[in-house]
Amino acid sequence: MQRTLLYIMSIGIAAGALSMVFFLLLAAGVPFVGIVPVVGIALWAYWKYGVAATMKWVEDDGSRPFFSLIILAVGMATMVAKSYPLTERYGGWDAWAIWNLQAKYLASDTWRTLFLNVRHGHPDYPLLVPGITAFFARILPMCRIEAIAFVPAFCFMLFIPVLIYLQYAGRSIIVATYVLFMLATDKFFLTLGVSMYADTALAFFFLCALAAMKQQLAGNRQVAIAAAALGCAMWTKNEGVVLSAIFCLFYFRELFLGGRYKYFAAAIALPVLTLVVFKLGFAPANDMAHGLSGDTWHHLTDMERYRQIFTSFSDNIEKNFGYIRMGVLLYGIVCLWRRQWPGKDMLMIVCCVAAYFMIYVVSFMDLQWHLLTSADRLLHQLMPALVFVIADKLAGNGNRMSFVIRRG
Q: What is the DSSP code string of 94-141?
């Protein structure tokens, strides 16, 4: 199933690339009638010389895991059925107050006024999600922004459990199936997924980068996929820059040594260019960075802040991510049984959680309000990757796929 898994990653990255090219052409003053063919040509080149060139080196042994595909289909149908009652007409608060509002700006000829809405619109946030919506909103002016925004939001949500399932179904159908239905029936995961927020998209791209490093592709093409996914994460939310930096630190050898830096640089060039143009040419100063002051040092020594943040994280995990407690416990038991230290993928996620923790420590905002309005979403960004890492440990190394139909 490796090809299907890589196609899912490639579709997500293609959506991110569309948003980047769209924004760069807007910034260059190109009229929309000229943007459409350029975006089309860029996506065609990406698919032909990037995706297709990679896929031809991915072996297809002719097997079609019939039983596992039935499980996948049932899991996806369950996800649709469970998420439908949770869907809101205009999305969640951040959807209509930030992401879809930004898309409406970008879909208009006066899109630069987006950056004047400093008080409530967060114009310093990267534009991957609203960029995708705005591009199709210009092509389909008869459709509501919310209807267009819902499609990529739902796809990003759907891709996450499917990607994890495809990665591990060949090693342990039990673990893969459990993860699939766990996420497909998790109310919090589904609620955020259909809310049209950017957090699920960021979770998907971070997961893609981690999954890419598990692939063995000719010419180290997995490095290019990971780099492109990290670039998309950076263009999705400001937190994506933090996560990408930590990821590169932990996977420095795999990403940069042995000449692999060339693949990394080529794949991340467009996201970095887009982010630099956006940050230096259009976006106002980030509110968190702008708010740092002398009080920051007092925050670092305020033990009550640490206690409050830890309590918030713990309560959120208990309320919204209860499955993680058992997963981490099983991960630890397996490590002890095999006499292994936790893998660097697990240590990387712990480091990401610690980075988010410290962001709250130095935050200039009212801490209780800041935690209440964002802690659950920041943890949501990391949970799919954490589930992926735990599943990797529990699935073992064997190939226990059954009910396989072979061609001819």
A: HIIIIIHHHHHHHTSTTGGGGGG-TTTS-TTS--HHHHHHHHHHHH-T
φ and ψ of 64, to 5 deg:
-130, 100
Tell me which H or E stretch contains 157.
helix 145-168
List, in sequence order, every beta strand (DSSP E) within 240-345. Answer: none
Q: What is the pLDDT of residues 324-334, one digit of tens each?
A: 999 999 999 99
pTM above 0.85, yes or no: yes
| 107 and 138 Cβ atoms separated by less than 8 Å | yes
* 343 backbone dihedrals φ, ψ, rounded to 5°: -70, 160
The single-letter code of the amino acid at 354 is A
Among 38, 156, 32, smallest CA distance to 99 is for 156
Fill in the amino acid letter for 151: V
pLDDT tens digit sequence for 3-57: 889 999 999 999 999 999 999 999 999 999 999 999 999 999 998 888 887 787 6
pLDDT at 397 over 70: no
Q: How many CB atoms lie within 10 A of CB 152?
A: 21
CA 206 to chain centre: 5
Q: How many CA atoms lie within 13 A of 366 on its CB side?
A: 4
Give the burial string for 112-142 (b: 16+ CB within 10 Å, else e). Answer: eebbeeeeebbbbbbbbbbbbbbbbbbeeee
Each residue's pLDDT tens digit, 281-324: 999 887 666 556 566 778 888 899 999 999 999 999 999 999 99
**CA of 281: how far to CAs of 27, 28, 112, 260, 274, in Å?**
9, 11, 11, 31, 10
Helix, strand or coil, per DSSP, at residue 90: coil
